[in-house]
Amino acid sequence: MSSVVVIDYGMGNLHSIAKALQHADANVTVQVSAEAKTILAADRVVFPGVGAIRDCMQALHDTGLAEIIVQVAKTKPMLGICLGMQALLTDSEEGGKTQGLNLFSGHVRRFANKLTDAEGNRLKIPHMGWNQVNQHAHPLWENIPQSSRFYFVHSYYAVPDNSEDTIATSDYPQAFTCALAKENLFAVQFHPEKSQTVGMQLLNNFLHWNGTV
User: Fold this and answer.
1) For residue 213, is it within any domain?
2) Catalytic site includes residue 119
3) Which of 83, 127, 184, 203 could make an SS bond with 24 (beta carbons 3.0 to 4.6 A apart)?
4) Which of 138, 142, 193, 208 is catalytic?
5) Cβ 103 vs Cβ 71: under 8 Å
6) Catalytic residue among 56, 82, 127, 178
7) What kind and span of H or E run contains 44?
8) Active-site residue identified among 107, 127, 154, 191
9) Residue 121: how many CB atoms within 10 A of its CB?
């Protein structure tokens, strides 16, 4: 039976993503764990997160999980979600300048203050709610219609150095990268576990993905 581990480093709604993964495919064994042995033994790994990136990176280094994530990134399919996506980049503006895991070369920037839409209406920060996702070709978008709406909650966004790493964008109001992919890594800024049918489809796709494009 296929297995997936949700990395537990003390941040993120772990119960929610674990429950969503189980719902996406009842035949997959889902575990939440901070144990290196358990994480490395899984077929696939999910790296979730909410909150501040400085706290996230501190927790990862304190627990030794930063090194485990880097190791996993070389060996098996991994899905980063929200803060888990941002932590995969080189660094973030949040908290001064916080170093990430550098699995994607690039930076995390804050949305500008006083953003407005095309009609001049003020856009709130954080960007919160449903927004369309414009996909680039990748196996994890299988059976998900182009421009489907996913659920977002964030004030910072990824700016990869390599445009080929961008696998989807969303607009707020300008286009920003909302999903990254490279080899066996896939990461999203939105929350698939909160995105209803399309979110479940993405999780199901991940649970059957062999890590190749």
Assistant:
1) no
2) no
3) 203
4) 193
5) no
6) 82
7) strand 44-47
8) 191
9) 9
**Spatial CA neighbour of 177 closest among 161, 195, 197, 194:** 161
Residue 82 is among the residues annotated as catalytic for this protein: yes
Instruction: Supply 140's token pair.
Output: 């994890």
Structural domain tally of the chain? 1
Catalytic status, residue 154: no
Write the CA distances from 107 to 38, 140, 203, integer angstroms. 30, 24, 26
Question: In this structure, is residue 99 part of a structural domain?
Answer: yes
Instruction: Give the residue numbers spanning the domain of 153.
Output: 3-207
Contact 77, 209 (CB under 8 A): yes
For residue 24, give the CATH number of its domain. Answer: 3.40.50.880
> Residue 212 falls within a domain, yes or no?
no
pTM of the prediction? 0.96
Beta bridge mates, 99: 91
